[in-house]
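**User:**
If convenient, please work through this fold.
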Amino acid sequence: MSAKAAIINVRSFTHPHLRSIYEEGLWGIPDNRVNRTRWEALTSGSKVLLYGEYGGKRGAWALCRLRGKELALNRPIRYWDPPTGYPLLVWLEPEVPSELSDPSALEGITPVGKEELASAFGFIGLRERFDRWSIYTFREAKGKGVTYPISRFEAALNEFLARNRTPVRPRRPDHEAIKEMIYQIGLMQGKFPAKEYPIEDRRIDVVWRRTARSVPYVAWEVCLGGDLFKDLSKLKHAFDIWNSIPVLVTTAELLDEARRWVEGSFHEIADALRLIPWERVRRFYEAKSAVKELETELGVL
């Protein structure tokens, strides 16, 4: 059974062994029965959170994508001591931070701490007193080589992404910036947001889902001067097939036109539809960002 994600414990981001990650994106895991079974379950493309100590704090500090893996029982790796002691090899591509060439890349990162991972997300293996080079794997169903259900990883990943998002501060209407704000609000709300979500032969600007595999329960379209009829049509379709809450984000100038369309051609979704000026989305985003920063500072979820 293949795993969909993993947490790899590298113990410390200043350990000499970490040169292999900084220089080649390469890491190795000790070969034992448990590690081998979990390593064998990994598949290319999986999301990987790197866990370890940096600046005196243990936690998930980096997000990577698994590029590949290799069993190298007798091949020495020059970075490690002993050179053949970690033969379960993985190649990692950093995503957050986008470059991971030395420990200083973590300076701008806000990790999800050890106790948060153990208490809020149920990773009890991280409560061990002494850190070990180890691996934890995730997928939908229990099976060989699977440590935890994928839902726990997805929740922890959302929290990591919410803490390490790039702030958006548009002062004038900007379609992509507003989409990004809605997406980031979803992350901070603990939802599972997605941009450009397919709906038959069209795409919804942003959706929020309750789980990574559920249908969207909120569908967002941003219209700042384009085709209101087209955007409302997509929202009605999302309401019809998913029972999603339809939300149209627009300008003050277009609100009256949108209301006329809703009173006429789209009267079926009149009770469910939310019409929101884009400035209110910005206010929502700023307020939610302030709360998230306070939650992170206090260490509570």
About this structure: The first strand starts at residue 5 and ends at 12. The mean pLDDT is 93.
